[in-house]
Design goal:
Layout: E1 2-7, H1 10-24, E2 30-35, H2 46-52, E3 59-60, H3 68-86, E4 90-94, H4 98-109, E5 113-119, H5 129-140, E6 143-146, H6 149-157, E7 165-167, H7 171-185, H8 188-191, E8 200-203, H9 207-210, H10 213-226, E9 232-235, H11 238-246, H12 250-254, E10 259-262, H13 267-275, E11 279-282, H14 285-294, E12 298-300
Parallel strand pairs: 1-2, 1-4, 2-3, 4-5, 5-6, 6-7, 8-9, 8-11, 9-10, 11-12
Length: about 300
């Protein structure tokens, strides 16, 4: 059996790592790993391959950045001839990024079966591009692997038959539990001059949050208030850093003496920061799940 696994962004890598480990133990399965290149910054992609022990991708499409439509179209354009060449029995997609949607569309039109890992999650907000990606991917997939009961309930309410739905749990948490002790052993808080249990960690990257000047300004107001009460560590996504400069907010952030802007962290380093934080503020669905398992209070920025 030949399976093509598609990754494109940091969350995909975290979720696909345990799948690749499991498939490698099955000699009758040939697994082909395709990286679309949706995240092309080294710390947002290549570093995670090394950190999580993921083998080098068999095919790297290098699609890079672009609008929602451009990025989706570029993945489809590059992936279609590859899938025609490989003729897999199954395409596995994970999560809800543009690469997930694009791969699903290509495979479905080529009559290749699709398995969606992390199916059924819904925010019921169609203004979020991830929500559109989820709904379309689930509607076209043949196998729907859910992480929680709400995913099962959502799919059933949308008319998906039970034989397609498989409640399997959260592979991203498999990765977290595998690397948690190593992350704690790194002593990350001391590296940034803070004590465990005393600081906040912030992540902010969604277009609806950072591409709007007034909205991003209001989030900076929030961080200014938080840093008055505790140290704040803010690993800055490349998109967010660019918007801070573009909107003239970078100098204001630099004046917040108790807030540290950090480069994007590797997976294990970031888990080390999360696990020992007093509180986390994030717009990342994955970080929300990770903090739940780590027992760290989390505020969702929407």
């Amino acid at each position: 059996m030949k399976i093509v696994a598609i990754v494109g962004a940091r969350p995909n890598l975290i979720k696909v790592a345990p799948l690749l480990d499991a498939l490698a133990k099955r000699p009758h399965v040939e697994t082909v790993l395709v990286h679309t290149g949706q995240h092309y910054d080294e710390r947002m992609s290549d570093y995670f391959f090394r950190d999580l022990g993921i083998r080098e991708a068999d095919h790297y499409l290098r699609v890079g950045s672009g609008s929602q439509a451009v990025q989706t179209a570029q993945v489809m354009f590059a992936l279609e001839p590859l899938l025609i060449q490989l003729l897999p029995d199954l395409v596995v997609v994970v999560g809800d990024v543009n690469s997930t949607l694009a791969a699903t569309l290509v495979a479905a039109k080529l009559h290749i079966r699709v398995a969606h890992v992390e199916a059924g999650l819904r925010s019921f907000d169609r203004t979020m591009p991830e929500e559109v990606n989820r709904v379309v991917t689930d509607s076209l997939s043949d196998l729907l692997f859910t992480t929680e009961q709400s995913g099962v309930d959502n799919l059933r309410s949308e008319g998906v038959s039970d034989e397609k739905i498989h409640f399997v749990g959260n592979v991203m948490i498999d990765t977290l539990l595998k690397h948690r002790e190593r992350a704690l052993s790194l002593g990350l808080p001391a590296r940034f001059g803070v004590e465990p249990g005393t600081y906040a960690v912030v992540t902010l990257h969604r277009p609806s949050n950072v591409d709007d000047d007034p909205m991003l300004g209001r989030f900076i107001d929030v961080l200014a208030a938080v840093q008055d009460t505790m140290p704040v560590l803010f690993p800055v996504h490349p998109r967010t850093r660019a918007r801070l400069e573009e909107f003239g907010l970078a100098e204001r952030v630099a004046d917040l003496k108790n807030l540290q802007l950090l480069e994007p962290q590797g997976y294990v380093e970031f888990i080390g920061l999360l696990a020992q934080a007093r509180i986390v503020l994030t717009d990342s669905g994955g970080v929300q799940e990770e903090t739940t398992i780590l027992g760290v209070p989390c505020l969702t920025l929407r």
